[in-house]
Write a structure and sequence with these properties.
The chain is α/β, with parallel strands linked by helices. Helix content is 54%, strand content 15%. The strands form seven sheets. Strands 1, 2, 5, 6, 7, 9, 10, 15 and 16 form a nine-stranded mixed sheet that branches.
Length: 994
């Protein structure tokens, strides 16, 4: 057992080491994933709505990325429909170039006059600044959040080669040196750089990475010393002699770097510096991939959209809710959004040793008091409902509490939260665009009418044209308005201008009709002058009927937009709308514990859902898991070392089931995560190791013990003894046992008359019957001595609590078996011989005795001697079974015993109080007369009342003429009455024997 325990301890230590080094992480993650799939997570917040840019949307709108004017329209629509918060799972790192709006493609609306003669008046040629329009839409909504990402530390070009391998110290030094040369002179060529920094010719020089790094460095240096962000001024200082409009690769590289630097500078006031209590394991980034400055400034919140994936398996289980980047604390997009929704501050985050917390008190002194001051004050803060308590693991991330699907028939990410297709919203956007376009055509046709009607009065046309130009500029400015008040002012000015030109347009239409009247008369006579022919070429587009058609179309579009608004508003109003790509070929699908293919926007929705409900997965930590694994390993080692294979396997299965059940209960009720899968590995690993050791080292000994014990008891009992035997099983020890001696009466005389083969046929059945009776009562049959059998009960190898009763039952069984065999004997060559049995209970030494050459497992002591002498005394007393008084008392009331007096046996000074075993409890009533008679005889006998004793004995013989004990005492009375016993005699009688 000691060796098995050592093997178990070694295996436990090995598995603990493997777990500590992360070798069981995959198994641990598998257990974590299994719990989420089997038990589910938290409920989905009904306020969260996913706006899916799905395949149907992309097919309808176009491939991604879209023009940002479309996103601006979506934001306007979501805001108009009552979205409480708009979260864009997007980053806007690169500015979109200014573009020119294309002319309408609808041939039925194309007007040759407005397309050729009035391009400066109408919107068919206006410039579109997508970034400005998107920023304006965000500012108007005032509830838009979007994502930002960052470069990890190991992706810094100064720390890595172009080949992606870990650079040597010399390579890093050359890279930094080359970048500094480029900061001094950005126009250096590759050959010049190689010469300046002595770059090896056989090693590739990463010129692109060097240019990008140098451009960022130069821009950051410039921004640190200048309050005005002017690229032309920077370029003039950095690259003198280059015209600002020059579009060389170097200038474009600098332009992008400068835009990033301006944007990064604009973000510095958005987030605070990390609190001093935050631990070192909070994730870090090398630099932010800053968004376009105008867009970043217009959003209400910006957060990281980076999610952590396991290196061994690309499954997202956790998210870094906070990241240190460039001395700033950048929150995750879900955390930034949840802070605004729940009105909980996230600008002040501190670490209390177990969780990340925020507090509404932003003063440094108050933070210090909460962290290191009065514990009672900290407890009060912990009970507040206006700050976060977020567990963060030692890897700097927080486990995502995945929400349960509410629609089991759908894939998990589709069946969890509410969804609306972005295509439906874009249909609403398209309605507004169509209304705007139709309105432009109405205005264009009226302008054409005014142009023709005033062609001879240029002054009137110029006044009208100036007003139209101003109205077009104001209409375009509405898209760039930053708030509703500004929009209302612009709309009012547009309405005023429309009223001012309305009279001119009405007169123009009447004037055209007047000009057309003579032409109709000329056409009736078959003759038409040139002007009439020119007017006729576009008359259909300038009549009241054409304008009426456009006006009716405008009303129809407005009615359709209002109907769509009534349908969409109940789905959008009051909800947190997360907009993200879920299209098959465009989304960033990842694996999660709940779904093998989940879009990134859904991952952020799960984290936002947990933050809004204050429900977090709380792992007990590496130390707690190690302690649990240690306890499991110790328990498995003890069980596998102590008990047999089957029982230890049952204990193992029960322990594993209990472990899984308790961990499942903790997870389901409290979201506490315990490493139950490594726990099962620990149980199984230790059990297998210990059992293998026991099988290898103890099986040989067990087989030897089984063979030896099979000599004393049944093979099954011997196997059971060997199974639970330990090293102390054979060591001699004192023990209360019951000894059993048996032999055949008159066997010696009978053996003299028989040849050896007949003697064997006489003896073999007797030994077999006695052995079977003893083994049935789980006695240890020690040895055969001629016709005698020695056995004992309650050996250390085979313990029993009712040893004396077992011995008495075995003795009666031997008598019954012998009597049955005698009734069938008819051959005088095989005479029936009486069986004599002696039983005694008492202390003896039991164990393995002998020499190195010959050993025997037996018992030694006075109890053995008493049992042997009682067996021999049966011959003198004429009885079959004699039992010592201690054995009688231990056997209990289930048997009929008759006292036979105090017997002096050979080898013992003190007399033995002996009893004759007459039968089991069923014979007690029938034996009462002989039992009471012998008790009376013994009382008279011990008091030397010979005549009374003789009279009682004769009465006993009258009941049973074959009563050997009565005849023995008659002879003893004759002998003692002739010669009185010595002084102090108390009824002892000599019985002789061995």
């Amino acid at each position: 057992m000691v060796g098995a325990l050592l093997v178990g301890a070694t295996t436990t230590a090995l598995i603990l080491t493997v777990y500590w080094l992360g070798g069981l992480r995959r198994i641990d993650n598998l257990g974590y994933d299994t719990f989420f799939r089997a038990l589910g997570g938290i409920e989905a917040d009904p306020r969260i709505l996913l706006v899916d840019i799905d395949d149907s949307t992309l097919k309808r709108i176009g491939r991604w990325p879209w023009d940002r004017r479309k996103l601006a329209g979506m934001i306007d629509v979501l805001s108009d429909l009552g979205a409480s918060h708009i979260v864009l799972d997007m980053t806007f790192r690169r500015p979109q170039p200014v573009r020119v709006e294309a002319a309408p493609s609808d041939s039925s609306l194309r007007n040759p006059v407005s397309a050729t003669r009035l391009p400066t008046l109408e919107a068919s040629g206006l410039l579109i600044r997508d970034d400005d329009e998107l920023a304006a839409a965000m500012a108007r909504a005032a509830n838009v959040y979007f994502g930002i990402d960052y470069q990890p530390l190991d992706s810094d070009p100064a720390q890595a080669t172009s080949a992606g391998r870990q650079p040597s110290e010399g390579t890093q030094s050359r890279f930094t040196n080359a970048a500094m040369h480029l900061v001094q002179d950005f126009s250096l060529t590759e050959a010049e750089l190689r010469r300046l920094v002595h770059w090896p010719q056989d090693e590739p020089l990463p010129l692109a990475e060097l240019k990008a790094f140098a451009a960022r460095t130069a821009c950051n240096q410039y921004m640190s010393g200048h309050s005005v962000s002017n690229f032309d001024a920077f370029l003039d200082q950095f690259m003198p002699g280059h015209a600002p409009a020059e579009r060389s690769p170097d200038v474009e590289e600098l332009r992008m770097a400068f835009a990033e630097a301006v944007s990064a500078e604009s973000l510095r006031g958005r987030w605070r510096v990390p609190h001093s209590t935050l631990p070192d394991f909070i994730l870090r980034g090398a630099r932010l991939n800053a968004p376009v400055a105008e867009i970043g400034q217009a959003a209400r919140g910006i957060g990281s959209v980076v999610y952590q994936q396991e290196e061994s398996a690309p499954i997202v289980r956790s998210l870094p809710l906070i990241v240190r980047v460039e001395q700033q604390l950048v929150p995750h997009l879900a955390l930034a959004t949840a802070g605004a929704i729940a009105h909980r501050p996230i600008d002040t985050l501190y670490w209390n040793g177990r969780t990340l917390e925020s507090t509404p008190d932003t003063s440094l002194s108050a933070k210090a008091r909460r962290v290191s001051g009065n514990p009672e004050a900290r407890g009060d803060a912990a009970r507040r409902q206006d700050h976060w308590l977020i567990p963060i693991g030692e890897d700097g991330t927080t486990l995502v509490p995945w929400a349960m699907p509410s629609k089991p028939g759908n894939p998990t990410w589709l069946g969890t939260f509410r969804h609306v297709s972005a295509g439906r919203l874009m249909e609403y956007v398209d309605k507004f665009d169509s209304i705007e376009e139709n309105d432009r055509w109405l205005k264009a046709k009226r302008s054409d009418a005014v142009h023709w009607a005033t062609r001879l009065t240029q002054d009137r046309w110029e006044v009208y044209a100036d007003r139209i130009r101003e109205r077009n500029l104001l209409t375009s400015a509405i898209r760039l308005a930053r708030n509703e008040h500004e929009v209302e002012e612009l709309l009012q000015r547009v309405a005023d201008l429309t009223l001012q030109v309305a009279d001119e347009e009405k007169l123009a239409l009447q004037r055209l009709d007047d000009l057309r009247e003579p032409c109709r008369d000329a056409e009736a006579g078959g003759n038409s002058f040139a002007e009439c022919r020119e007017i006729a070429s576009f008359e259909a587009a300038l009549t009241d009927s054409a304008l009426t058609h456009l006006q009716m179309r405008q009303e129809r579009l407005q009615a359709e937009a209002e109907a769509l608004r009534r349908i969409l508003r109940p789905e959008i109003e009051g909800r947190v709308c997360l907009v993200g790509l879920v299209g098959t070929g465009a989304a960033d699908f990842v694996s999660t514990p709940m779904d093998s293919r989940c879009p990134g926007v859904a991952v952020h929705a799960h984290m936002l859902n947990a933050l809004l409900q204050d429900r977090f997965v709380r792992p007990i930590g590496a130390q707690g898991n190690l302690l649990i694994l240690f306890v499991l390993g110790a328990a498995a080692a003890f069980a596998a070392s102590k008990v047999g294979l089957v029982r230890s396997l049952f204990i193992l299965a029960s322990s594993g089931g209990l472990l899984v059940s308790l961990c499942a209960l903790l997870f389901r009720r409290e979201m506490i995560v315990v490493s139950w899968a490594p726990g099962l590995v620990m149980l199984a690993g230790v059990w297998v190791a210990v059992i293998a050791y026991r099988q290898a080292t103890e099986e040989r000994q067990r087989r030897r013990v089984t063979r030896m014990l099979a000599q004393y008891t049944s093979p099954a009992v011997a196997a059971g003894i060997a199974e639970r035997l330990d090293d102390r099983g054979f060591a001699p020890q004192r023990r209360i046992i019951t000894c059993f001696f048996s032999d055949l009466g008159d066997f010696t005389a009978a053996a003299e008359r028989l040849d050896p083969e007949e003697t064997r046929r006489l003896l073999q059945p007797y030994l077999e019957r006695v052995s079977n009776a003893l083994i049935a009562e789980e006695a240890l049959v020690n040895k055969f001595i001629g016709d005698g059998v020695f056995a004992f009960f309650n050996a250390p190898l085979l313990p029993c609590t009712d040893q004396a009763a077992r011995a008495c039952r075995a003795a009666l069984a031997c008598l019954r078996a012998t009597s049955a065999s005698a009734s069938h004997a008819s051959n005088s060559a095989n005479p029936s011989l009486p069986v004599r049995i002696g039983i005694a209970t008492g202390e003896a030494i039991v164990g393995d005795f002998g020499t190195d050459r010959k050993r025997d497992y037996t018992s030694i002591g006075d109890t053995v001697n008493v049992a042997s002498r009682l067996e021999a005394a049966n011959k003198t007393l004429g009885t079959s079974i004699l039992v010592s008084d201690s054995a009688r008392q231990a056997a209990g009331d289930g048997f009929a015993f008759r006292p036979v007096g105090r017997l002096r046996v050979a080898g013992r000074v003190q007399a033995v109080q002996a009893f004759e075993l007459l039968g089991d409890g069923s014979t007690r009533e029938a034996s009462q007369a002989t039992i009471r008679g012998m008790e009376t005889v013994l009382e008279h006998f011990s008091n030397r009342r010979w005549s009374q004793a003789r009279a009682e004995l004769e009465a006993l013989l009258a009941l049973n003429a074959g009563d050997g004990a009565a005849r023995f005492y008659l002879r003893a009375i004759e002998r003692l009455s002739a010669a009185s016993p010595e002084e102090g005699w108390r009824g002892e009688v000599e019985v002789g024997g061995r």
